[in-house]
Amino acid sequence: MLNHNKLWTKEYIFLLIESFFLYIGFMVFMPTLPARIIELGGSQVSASLSVGLFSIVALFTRAISGSWNDRIGSKILILVGLLILIISTFSFYFSSIVFVLLVIRLLQGAGWGISTTSIATGVSTLVPPAKMGEGIGFYGLTTALGMSIAPILAILIINMFNFHFLITFALVFLCANLILLSQIKLKKKKPLHHTTPALLEKSAVLPAFLCLLMAIPLGGIQTFMMVYGNEIHVSHTWIYFLGQALTILISRFFAGRLYDVKGHRFVIIPGILSMALGLIVLSMSWNAPSLFVAALIFGLGYGMTQPALQALAVERAAPDKIGAANGTFLSGMDLGMAIGSFGLSLIATYSNYSFMYLSSITALIVLALTYWFTIGKSRVVH
Q1: What's in the keyword line of the UniProt record (predicted)?
Q2: What is the pLDDT of residues 131-163, one digit of tens each?
Q3: 14, CA 20 to 30 Å: which among 30, 177, 368, 370?
């Protein structure tokens, strides 16, 4: 029996581990696949497509799988998403043609969208309403840590071994999730009423848009940090992701509880300010220590803001639309990352990466203003 009054159940803990393993197994290709494509003779455009294609496909699969989570349950969809990811990742072994790599990336995007949306929905259904900030916060910790640690591991593996070893590394984490999934029991929720599945859950559109704005500078960081290191003559750019992971971890010791006790504005506003300050320091960085300081500041803000926005999306949704709400919210994350990867690269092309990071603060300014004049003035979220 699932205990809906207790947060730290076996199912909840296993889903957090699932999420962390999933982000590690998938995100190791973010900084390495573009380099692999260029190594195989692909253009810079093709390399950029490897970043954006999965986001576009994930955007649509999230919208569809979100509604299906509410109808057939999360566990079966987590399994479907994992199998797609494992098969597509395994296909990298035999792919030395750029076009084939991009097609595989499309398939990965489908598996990514289905599995991440389904895990998020499973987590949301296990969290007691009174602990929503804390429960979603720790889920946000696993995704953010995975997103921060994966580039460190990817860079180290590529430098020490090769791309095929990286594929094996990713498959170990993805296959481990199949074992974890077999030990998880998730109840299937019956819809309260029969409706046609919608691509977007209306109640989650605003939090998703806020997440999109937050993800724009993050997309620039995840995609171009290695290139920025070349610009400022820093080879050990993995130190940035280490600093970001540290303060994301620290934020979990207070941000979720603060959300539940004080309300979202006491978490989101300081989080936005911290991210903006981190980008300013990042734009002025000249060595590894200054990159590390920028990462500490930005990571703290991201660790506070992202889980709080997702908790908002879940709280505003009807009980039978939690899956759709998670799908809509995470679509905002994917779209923001894609805009950050492509849009910010245009700024860097006509100036430099330092100015690119500084200009990305504009997205956070729009985020702060939109949040404050819509829901930021009130502690009540419904």
Answers
A1: Membrane, Transmembrane, Transmembrane helix, Transport
A2: 777 788 788 788 878 888 898 898 889 888 999
A3: 30
Q: Are 220 and 52 in contact (CB under 8 A)?
A: no
Q: What share of the chain is helix, strand, coil (3-state, %, to 5)?
A: 80, 0, 20
3-class state of residue 360 by DSSP: coil
Number of Cβ within a 10 Å radius of residue 104: 22
Residue at 382 is within a domain: no
On whether residue 269 sits in a domain, the answer given is: yes
Phi, psi of 352, rounded to the nearest 5 degrees: -160, 175
2 lies in some domain: no
Instruction: Give alpha helix (H) positions in 73-162.
Output: 74-91, 98-126, 132-160
Tens-digit pLDDT profile for residues 13-63: 999 999 999 999 998 988 788 778 878 887 766 776 777 777 778 878 877
Place of tokens 């500078």: 217
Q: What residues contact residue 61 under an 8 Å CB cut-off, 6+ apart? A: 109, 110, 112, 113, 114, 117
- pLDDT of the residue at 14: 92
